[in-house]
Amino acid sequence: GAGVSQSPSNKVTEKGKDVELRCDPISGHTALYWYRQSLGQGLEFLIYFQGNSAPDKSGLPSDRFSAERTGGSVSTLTIQRTQQEDSAVYLCASSTGQVGARGYTFGSGTRLTVV
Amino acid sequence: KQEVTQIPAALSVPEGENLVLNCSFTDSAIYNLQWFRQDPGKGLTSLLLIQSSQREQTSGRLNASLDKSSGRSTLYIAASQPGDSATYLCAVGAGGNKLVFGAGTILRVKS
Hints:
The structure holds two protein chains of two kinds.
Chain A: E1 5-7, E2 10-13, E3 19-24, E4 31-37, E5 43-50, E6 65-69, E7 75-79, E8 88-95, E9 105-106, E10 110-114
Parallel strand pairs in A: 2-10
Antiparallel strand pairs in A: 1-3, 3-7, 4-5, 4-8, 6-7, 8-9, 8-10
Chain B: E1 4-7, E2 10-14, E3 19-25, E4 32-38, E5 44-51, E6 56-59, E7 62-67, E8 72-77, E9 86-93, E10 99-101, E11 105-110
Parallel strand pairs in B: 2-11
Antiparallel strand pairs in B: 1-3, 3-8, 4-5, 4-9, 6-7, 7-8, 9-10, 9-11
């Protein structure tokens, strides 16, 4: 597509429920990233996919968080047993994935509220 | 561990003023540095990307400089307009293609 598409744009869920967030990157971009932006804080790296390589999961805050990328394109970030501290904007980005790449394109994000 | 700091945290200027936003980083071993704009409730829009071998990039009224050895970048906005009001984020491309972000500068341009 023309840009990075994320869905849903907003999600309100009850504490303890599981949620799935979707990211559809720019066609042809081999690298895909998930970041989290909590209120009043900077963006926090979560996970990075590059082609068929094993993902870099070093930023995932707990084992309740997981992500997959099917067919090298669409990615789903899953949060199990959501907690109130999971409330944040979850941003997805994609890039050509090369060192010194032309830059990263972000989606509009999913605003997650856990009540 | 790479850390990115942005100063000031917030800035309010009258329309037409030229302004400078500052970004510093602790580890000079970066691949690139990127400036983004974020409007309230929106995602990030890329403004300028400077590769590690470059000193500056320009786009319209925006000019970004990079001094890798001193770990600094500045974003210069000329003739500011109310439409420039947003949060400006600096991010460095670190190892593994990750971006490390600063906390941002909230800019308000008053008409």
